[in-house]
Design a protein that fits this description.
Elements lengths: L10 H8 L4 H28 L9 H6 L1 H4 L2 H18 L5 H30 L12 H5 L4 H24 L3 H4 L15
Helix pairs in contact: 2-5, 2-8, 5-6, 6-8
Length: 192
């Protein structure tokens, strides 16, 4: 198997194409989704800490228009799943240092996804963790009034290694460049 490329055949062939010919486009599309999500969280943080809104009223931009949507565990779980799928799928296009950092973001997102799955299952069943009055994540057991901060924390610890991976991916070392099969680096390596 060529480094940085998924093996061919069916779904794996699609992943291979996404990580070779379409890697750059797929990465930028994925980044648009990630940054839109960050914009929601930053807006919510501004509403709480900048504007002094009570937490139940601070729902970001989407929540102002669709408050029922933002309080839905389905929305949060769906985003966590999309993040996980994106991180797993696009990982095949990374090599060297970039792949290590992208993999770190992916494994942190695995945990973040499991936390959202736990929240969704509680919302669907009405059986809340350890007798809580609402769906509660593992980290919320230690910090019960800090759901906004916990979510900002989870998103940051996934986002930071993603950005480091992108930096290394777009600025590979010469030995990493020779392993890359995607079009993210169009210019040839400098001579010397």
């Amino acid at each position: 198997m060529t480094a940085g490329v998924a093996p061919s055949g069916g779904w794996q062939k699609t992943i291979g194409v996404l990580n070779v010919r379409w890697h750059k486009v797929a990465l930028w599309g994925f980044m648009v989704i990630v940054l839109a999500h960050w914009a929601e969280h930053v807006t919510q943080a501004i509403q709480i800490w900048g504007l002094g809104w009570p937490r139940p009223k601070a729902k970001g931009v989407l929540g102002l228009a669709f408050p029922w949507l933002v309080t839905s565990e389905w929305l949060h779980y769906g985003y966590a799943l999309i993040m996980l799928i994106g991180l797993v799928t696009l990982r095949h296009g990374f090599v060297g240092r970039a792949r290590s950092w992208w993999s770190a973001a992916m494994w942190i997102q695995v945990w973040h996804h499991l936390e959202h799955l736990l929240l969704l299952l509680q919302a669907l069943t009405g059986a809340y963790l350890l007798g809580a009055k609402q769906p509660t994540s593992i980290l919320q057991l230690a910090f019960p009034t800090s759901r906004v901060e916990i979510h900002l924390f989870y998103n940051a610890v996934v986002f930071v290694p993603m950005m480091v991976a992108m930096y290394y991916h777009l600025r590979p070392r010469p030995e990493e460049r020779t392993l890359m099969r995607c079009t993210c680096i169009a210019a040839p390596a400098p001579a010397g």
